[in-house]
Structure formats: structure tokens, C-alpha cells
Amino acid sequence: GIQVEQSPPDLILQEGANSTLRCNFSDSVNNLQWFHQNPWGQLINLFYIPSGTKQNGRLSATTVATERYSLLYISSSQTTDSGVYFCAVEGTSGSRLTFGEGTQLTVNP
Amino acid sequence: EAGVAQSPRYKIIEKRQSVAFWCNPISGHATLYWYQQILGQGPKLLIQFQNNGVVDDSQLPKDRFSAERLKGVDSTLKIQPAKLEDSAVYLCASSWSSGNTIYFGEGSWLTVV
């Protein structure tokens, strides 16, 4: 099946800093989603982005499908951004939506 | 619009006992997913339904896990008998159709002792 690799595994920031999270995948995809899992375990969908660029407030994401990676940008980070960020992809061969291992983000006040 | 509902939120059982989790997806969503998330790992798909038919159950341990989606709406995931390694969060999710944005419930936390 498709392989998903996220980096970095852990990231610690001061409030107000910017960050970039990366998701590499091993095959062509027709579905890529970014999620935030808050400290209480709730998974929130941030972006549906199999290609191109999207922005939502302080968050934006870019997927370069031809090069098999996606980036999630967080600007002016806040303590409420803390949690785990997951990338999930589905290959064009129709495989299941596969999650990476996540990036644990901690934003300190 | 109501989100994905799951119950119970927390369950502690002894090994070899049984447990069942219930999920009510977002109204109108044809695709329903059950994921297992072990602490420190990403969610792993157990089973995917399209309406009341199974699309993918290749990672479901069928000797102990079963799931059904009656009438294409609510779904139940059962574990019998439970093992210690089944301790995890069981996440239900739904989407309009396969390949669309998926929405998760709050999860059911299972501890097997």
C-alpha cells in the first residue's frame, strides 16, 4: 500500500512563531487531507487538498502531487494550535485512506 | 448540522470480555469508517462501508472484530473476546462519499485490563 511519512515528528514553538509541516507519500494520490488532533483526542479536518494551495486563516496548505509531497503552514502560532497534525492520503489505485504517524506540535506561551 | 456521534466515550473491560461501540454518522453521509488509533500512532482503518455494503475490511481482525451498518445509517463495532492489545481509541468517521472530506466523531476510548 501507499506509504506516508511526516516530518518533523516533534516540534516545539514559542507563541507567535511560524512553522512548516511536511508530508511525503510514495504514490500518486487522488485524496489528501490534513487533520489536527487536539489534546482531548478530537480529529478536526483542516484541508482537503489533493493538489494546489488552500488557505484558511492562519493555516495554509500546498500539495505538489507530481513531486509527492504536501506542506502545512502555520503562521503566528497560538497555544491552541498544540496537538498532533496528521496527513492522510488515498492512492489513485483506490487504496484506503492511510494516515501518517503525525507531527506533535507544542506551542508555548 | 450535527456531527458524528459515538458512544460510549469510555469503556474499561477485562480481557476475554466483549464490548460494542455505536456510531451515528452525519445525516446524508453514505460512507462510514471505523478506525483504530493506538496511543502514539496514526489512525488505522478497520472497516469502510458505502451505504450498508462493506468496501474494505482487509485490516479488520475478523476472528474477534465484527461490524455492521444496518439500513445504511448507524453502525456498531463489536469486539469479542477482547485482548490487551485492543486497548485503543475507536474512531468513527463519515463522508458524503468515498474520496470526499471525512469528519470524525470524538472517539470511544477502550481499556482492556
Number of helices of chain A: 0
Report the major sheet of chain B: 7 strands, mixed
Q: Rg of chain B, please?
A: 13 Å
Q: What oligomeric state do the depicted chains represent?
A: heterodimer
- The residue ranges of chain B in which pLDDT falls below 50 over 5 or more consecutive positions are none
Q: What is the count of DSSP helices of chain B, taking H or I runs of 4+ residues?
A: 0
- Overall, the morphology of chain B is globular
Strand content of chain B: over 45%
Structural class of chain A: mainly beta
Regions of chain A with pLDDT < 50 over 5+ consecutive residues?
A: none
Portion in strands of chain A? over 45%
> What proportion of the residues of chain B is helical, as a percent range?
under 10%
Describe this structure as you would to a colleague.
The complex is a heterodimer of chains A (109) and B (113). Chain A is built from no helices and 11 strands. With 109 residues, chain A is an all-beta fold. The N and C termini of chain A lie far apart (40 Å). The model of chain A has no long low-confidence stretch (mean pLDDT 95). Chain A is globular and about 45 Å long. Chain B has 113 residues and is mainly β. Chain B is built from no helices and 11 strands. In chain B, the strands form 2 sheets. In chain B, strands 2, 4, 5, 6, 9, 10 and 11 form a 7-stranded mixed sheet that branches. In chain B, strands 1-3-8-7 form a 4-stranded antiparallel sheet, with no helix packed on it. Chain A binds chain B through residues 4, 30-31, 33, 35, 40-45, 48, 86, 88, 90, 96-102, and chain B through 33, 41-45, 48, 56, 58-59, 89, 91, 93, 99-104, 106-107, 109.
